[in-house]
Amino acid sequence: MRLITLTPDSCTLTSATAMPRASGFLWNCKMMLHATCRGFVTAQHMQPEPAKYSHAPVVEGKTFMLPETAHYAHHPGRFVYVRDLVSQRHFSVPHEPVRRAPKAFTFTQHPERLEWSVEQDDLDIRWSLVLPVDEAVELWRLEIRNRLDIERALRIVPYFSVGYMSWMNQGARFNADLNAVIASSVTAYQKIDDYFKNHHLKDKTFLTCDRLPDAFETRREDFEGEGGLSDPDMLRAGLAGGEALYETPAAVLQFDQTLEANETQVWHFVFGPAFDEAEVACLKAAYLGPEAFERVCGEARAYVEQGRGVLAIETPDTHFDAFMNRWLARQVYYHGDTNRLTTDPQTRNYLQDALGMVFVRPQSARESLLYALSKQNADGSMPDGIKLYDGAQFSYINQVPHTDHCVWLFILLEAYLDETDDYAVLDAEVDGQGVRARLEAALRWLLKTRDHRRLSYIDQGDWNDPMNMVGWKGKGVSGWLTLAVAYALRLWVRLSGETQPWAAEAEAMNAAMNTHLWDGDWFGRGITDDDVAFGIRRDPEGRLYLNPQSFALLSGAASEAQAERMVQAVAAELETPYGVEMLGPPYTKMREDVGRLTQKSPGVAENGSVYNHAAAFYIYSLTQVKKGEKAFELMRKMLAGVDESDYVQRGQFPVFIPNYYRGDFHAHPRTAGRSSQLFNTGTVAWVYRSLIEGLFGLKGTREGLSVQPCLPAHWTEARATRQFRGSTYHVTYRRGGTPGLTLNGRPVVGNVLTLPEQPGVFEVEVGLQ
Amino acid sequence: MRLITLTPDSCTLTSATAMPRASGFLWNCKMMLHATCRGFVTAQHMQPEPAKYSHAPVVEGKTFMLPETAHYAHHPGRFVYVRDLVSQRHFSVPHEPVRRAPKAFTFTQHPERLEWSVEQDDLDIRWSLVLPVDEAVELWRLEIRNRLDIERALRIVPYFSVGYMSWMNQGARFNADLNAVIASSVTAYQKIDDYFKNHHLKDKTFLTCDRLPDAFETRREDFEGEGGLSDPDMLRAGLAGGEALYETPAAVLQFDQTLEANETQVWHFVFGPAFDEAEVACLKAAYLGPEAFERVCGEARAYVEQGRGVLAIETPDTHFDAFMNRWLARQVYYHGDTNRLTTDPQTRNYLQDALGMVFVRPQSARESLLYALSKQNADGSMPDGIKLYDGAQFSYINQVPHTDHCVWLFILLEAYLDETDDYAVLDAEVDGQGVRARLEAALRWLLKTRDHRRLSYIDQGDWNDPMNMVGWKGKGVSGWLTLAVAYALRLWVRLSGETQPWAAEAEAMNAAMNTHLWDGDWFGRGITDDDVAFGIRRDPEGRLYLNPQSFALLSGAASEAQAERMVQAVAAELETPYGVEMLGPPYTKMREDVGRLTQKSPGVAENGSVYNHAAAFYIYSLTQVKKGEKAFELMRKMLAGVDESDYVQRGQFPVFIPNYYRGDFHAHPRTAGRSSQLFNTGTVAWVYRSLIEGLFGLKGTREGLSVQPCLPAHWTEARATRQFRGSTYHVTYRRGGTPGLTLNGRPVVGNVLTLPEQPGVFEVEVGLQ
């Protein structure tokens, strides 16, 4: 049996142990849920700040979503114990916490739901989860089928973690009227102001079922007894029905159920946060039961379908197709439609997530651009984060000044204008100031924050957050940012039609980079406060950084000869079987003039990892210089799955691209490639753009759809369906036949399909050499 | 077999399951360690802010020490797996994580060390821990004896939790030169300032042994495999020796050891935090091995002995004697010598912990008084916390303004002057201002912060921290604080010899209380911003508060008749088998004019719990009105142990008094009495003072030692040895014989033993009716 099967409609894993961290995710506008194949679940909802309703067993630190989460016995999860009352044996679904090896196991991510199936002890069990499109609540379905021709006596015990809610007040009881375990708490606070802030919080967690349980328990420790989570005392003895009084709550129900020969029984559950019991009653009425479950599946499916994007491909690589046609667009849509369920996204993330939406729902991208500009500072700079509601607070990283945020306005703008031709946006007004004026103010701020060499100050960081000590004294500069500013300037020249002073400044900055940071085979990363260039050949660690090379290809700083050397250097020093590392060799100790980056674990996060966001930008830049072969190779590595052992090494389940794979490949091959499991990443917008505009070369222009592909040479034929400004283009790429372009069978001069008078469906043939 | 045996030299528990949370603690000037009988350990060291080196499996929230910690499989601990290589069976010591029921078990708190002994599978295992007196490091000894007359082949696997160290950098490896597992991390930070702050942090955790292991492992998850912590895969297969690369570290060693018939083998371990490997080497040299272990035991014992205090008693209640003669003084000493290992103790805690030191090392109490005064504000008020070093930050609760801190200066002063007669302290200067002037400034501030009725404003809280909405608008008053101020004024009149205006103000405040808050049978707790009296008869919840009654007895506000009614009301409404509740009935829902208190879980923390600090003050006030019978009764309830089932109900191990026992006795008898397990509490200074000055009536005066006991009537004889101003008094109390007092056989007129010309040893006889 295959370990992993990927189709556009589902991705299935057939082992809970081969890739124990393999995970999928669901979301809606109010919550996000991340589940491992073994049944551990991390969920957060927005009220409006992110909060949890199923907690760890200790007071958790507030932090961003962490990579490579290590699971442990009491990690929050959603489990069902099944005990055969005759044989006295038990197991649990999906796999935790009992961990008995099943006879058969599948974990399936559908676009809109998660599903586990387990065969064990002659039972078939299906355990399914779906989220409504606009409510923070989990809908679960449990189906148990008796495979035998005899009657079975079973004890079915769903166990939903609640965990440590609050040191101030916590508890749980069974509410018979609602047929629900309701855990209650008071979010801890000490200052009066916080009382008023916390007033509206949903401090309850509930579990309700469409069938009456035979017993229940609300106290975690009492449920477990000496047997612990893997062999709970009460599973044997029966649930005791206790009320949790300041004791760690759990929501546990017991159904002692006889199953006739071959009979199937079904249960539905709703689990989630609530403000009060009245809300539990409402949620129960809206979401509990078989009809509600089916209805929500349909609604959730329809919601995800809205994020199908503008491209469908058919290539010799069906695995690639399945991922790109469904899962990549799904991840792009998740980012753009929810802003990662944060309330103060970093400005660069916000703008790049919007860039993904250019290809999904361009109106959203336009709104995001204008909303971001509404937060612009008076001096033209952009804030470090975009507060999405009044009263949002800047989280920790957004309290640290970074200098790159303005750049991303132009990168988003280019993608948006090329795709939509909505140049009217430049004449829009935001809070009394025109977009054009605002964008030029941003450019002027970027020009102002340069040193005498015309290199851009880095302050406490640029795109690379943790590079926080290069320029904190006010003198250090960023080579990458200098190139990015030059790129932004050139974009503005093209998009605005205004040449000066922007074009000259771009040229000057590219020249400055060549003067001060060209290191023979690549561009250096920057120059510190103390005038020390870094990211250069003589550095034993961190000698080659990927980002400056990518942007040198885009900004025009690199000549063709330089480009060749850079690409070769990257191949030699940064490419690994798992993709291209962000920098190399990774830092193994603090370098005080670079900063926090160098204290990160080598090979993880940005420090020498295969940081997919950077890798995706490199891929994009390669497509811009028509190095499609290499771009495809790196894109393919990013998806993993060349063979199944590759997935196993990475622990990666191909329903999303993680923010990084472990790097440090040469020093630590054991861990290299391992997935961070984090699905929040600016990567996906760029992979999608690289695929559409780069590899398949279907990019918008003022005149129409430009067709300039750079497909890998070994693809003799490929097809793409591109939605563009209301029309559908069915494009067939063939290698080796007649070169050139035809539209509905007629040859096209040049490589632009000019806009039709009426939108329609068109057949396009592309002959490749 | 007895479940618990208490002596002055040890306290032993013979079951790991009867009282699973039973816990003991060790400390030194740099760290504190709290261990449960089952082997879970919470340790923190000061650098100088509290930090951990053995962590939970997730990023923990920074918070104060929490009550009633719920343990879970991966709670940090120190365990030893023992696997018989022939029978293939395994167990773990002390009890977690395998939890196999042992043949015999003991957990023993000695004053200076902890020791577990387990008999299982024909092995005797002893597992012992001691801390050096001035280093943050744990010294462990493992002794295994083969009880059989045949050779045994064993696999011994000590497992020390390291846990999730940092999202920024973590890992572990075995350093063969040091024979140590060394886990490394970088404390996570994002701001540059924090880099410099974190510079000196001990970010490593190490485990070293005086014997060479056969194998090791540093990766928690790999060690466990599918078997989990209770049946780790590697215990069977042998440890694989991996390096942890950003994986959750653990320190695990493997010793495959043959034990001859009846042979004993011994291992020593050192575990703790370190800055670098050089420090590991130093700590290893200083503390590893049998000699070091024995030496440290001796030094630690000598250190604890310095805290023996000034009283040794011999009564018909030997359990009471054992606790009071050793364990209470030990806990008093812990508080006073370490300030609870905080860096910004709340001012009232700091002053009361110093009050305990009056009876242990009076010089420290003097220093604390003067140090506290050095932090006095210009307006005479005291800050909410006392910063113990430059750069200490006010923790959360100390950012909330409370109005009672000044009061405790006078309460400490009284105890200090009575014990030492060091009235010269009043003439000392603190930062250019005399102590007398500072104290009067404090009084004036207290007088200034009263309303027109002469009732004291409560602001956002008084002694009762979470009563934060009574007076946040600036009008609400505290009945308790009014009485406490009156008490402080009267103390000052007595101690300073200055009568006015203080005596008149005290009288006026007592009168104001009687006018505005006498409720017929007791004093009310306060009046809110909106002029609503509370803590009164008509309140359905929180109708009777203990603290105002205690202080009314001390301040003189209560007439004798009122005192009788109050004591009766307290007995009727607040006394429970587990002591006297702080208020009753507990609040079950928010009362917005009282505040956070009412949102606390009913029966825990202050909300209707047996809050021992308040109970101790009540006991003290009872002794001041010579209600010794009731005082003793409540003191005895505070210690628990009337019979063993009482300990079991409370889960309390009699080596410390916890800050609270669960209350809400009438509504929730199941959980009532349960110990918070927190040994940080202002309780102990007051119990000690009540014992010395109250029950045994051996209180200092200007002339000498006053003898005015109020022992329980059923004690026909009791003895006490009292150290006082350099002399030793052996006091024998006898009931029923000749009343009166003799010194070395000679009758004494009055009840004061005037100071001898030379300190000496004196025999005192007290005849009681």
Number of beta-strand segments of chain A: 41
DSSP helix fraction of chain A: 25-40%
Distance between the termini of chain A: 39 Å
Largest sheet data of chain A: 11 strands, antiparallel
Secondary structure category of chain A? alpha+beta
Mean pLDDT of chain A: 97
Strand content of chain A: 25-35%
Instruction: Characterize the quaternary organization of these chains.
Output: homodimer
Which residue ranges of chain A are poorly predicted, with pLDDT under 50 across at least 5 consecutive positions? none
Total helical segments of chain A? 18
Strand order of the largest sheet of chain A: 1-2-9-10-11-12-20-16-15-14-18
If interface size is counted as residues with C-beta under 8 Å from the partner's C-beta, which chains form the largest one?
A: A-B, 64 and 64 residues
What global shape of chain A is seen?
Answer: globular
Radius of gyration of chain A: 27 Å
Description:
Chains A, B: Keywords: Glycosyltransferase, Transferase. Chains A, B: Residues 312-697 form the Glycosyl hydrolase 94 catalytic domain. Chains A, B: Residues 75-287 form the Glycosyl hydrolase 94 supersandwich domain. Chains A, B: It comes from Asticcacaulis currens. The structure is a homodimer of 769-residue chains. The first copy, chain A, is α+β, with helices and mostly antiparallel strands and 769 residues long. Helix content of chain A is 28%, strand content 25%. In chain A, the strands form ten sheets. Chain A has an eleven-stranded antiparallel sheet with strand order 1-2-9-10-11-12-20-16-15-14-18. In chain A, strands 21-36-37-41-38-39 form a six-stranded mixed sheet. In chain A, α7 runs antiparallel to α8 (362-374), α7 (347-357) runs parallel beside α9 and α15 runs antiparallel to α16 (628-639). The longest helix of chain A has 21 residues, at 318-338. Chain A is globular. The two termini of chain A are 39 Å apart. The interface between A and B is large, with 64 and 64 residues.
